[in-house]
Amino acid sequence: MQIGVVFPQTEFGDDPGLIRDYAQAAEELGYSHILAYDHVLGAVHAGRQPPLTGPYTEETPFHEPLVLFGYLAGVTRTIGLMTGVLIVSQRQTALVAKQAAEVDLLSGGRLRLGIGTGWNYVEYDSLGMEFRKRGRMQEEQVEVLRRLWSEPVVDFSGRFHRIERAGIRPMRPGSIPIWFGGSSDAVLDRAARLGDGFVFSRLSSLATGGIQKIRERAAVAGRQLGDFGFEVQLPYAPGAEIWAQELERWREAGGSRASINTMGAGLRTPADHIDALRRYREVAAAFAGEPAS
Fold first, then answer.
1. Rounded-to-integer distance, Cα 96 and Cα 65, Å
2. Helical axes 65-75 vs 93-107, angle rounded to 10°
3. What is the DSSP letter of 226?
4. Rounded distance, CA 28 to CA 79, Å?
5. pTM, two decimal places
6. pLDDT digits (tens, 9 = 90+) for 55-81
């Protein structure tokens, strides 16, 4: 099992040197990847109709993940970079393709693009995108992204996109893996048909049952999943005994990757988050099949 870290950006601050130190510590400790969340805008919740029910507000800090990964590509050498998840349906698809290709190129092929549809309609409105059509938009985006990454000139006409004989340069060899995230049946179905993997936000019946649902829906669609991956985010707060139990439960369910999330664990400084990675590493190493550093 590959084990990575969730970049604790809502608690970490904005010092570039400390962000570098965190990424380099994760790499030196043997973690396989860094996963970063995405929100372009934080919104005031009060007085909204319909209500905003997500966990983040106008006071929650978020680094833009693809820009962040451009920086991390230059200060690390081997650790993978994953958006978990990029709210792709509120973004211009060709621009996402360009930015992702650039990150992947500069990092030497280390990017996995995790995508989702999100919950914050204020972001969609502010970015000029349609919240109610986000699922259908996402499905078409997957095709457009893959074509822009693999074809020097694309001619595409769909419901949401029109590209007339145009392409991105520089290109990168092959295609960037696209992983889905979310909780609806629709996104599980979309992942089964179109995805390279799925990332669950927590270990629950949705995650363990979701693996089977995706496998079943892929079979109905006539698709062989092959090396399709399943990742889950696990909280740091419960402690070492629970860490081991959750990793074992996830492995038994068929999970192939996990990421440890130190946010919400009462850690007060960036140094605390880095120390938490060291403490978790001993447990993580046993499940990754590697010696602890």
1. 11
2. 10
3. T
4. 9
5. 0.96
6. 999 999 999 999 999 999 999 999 999
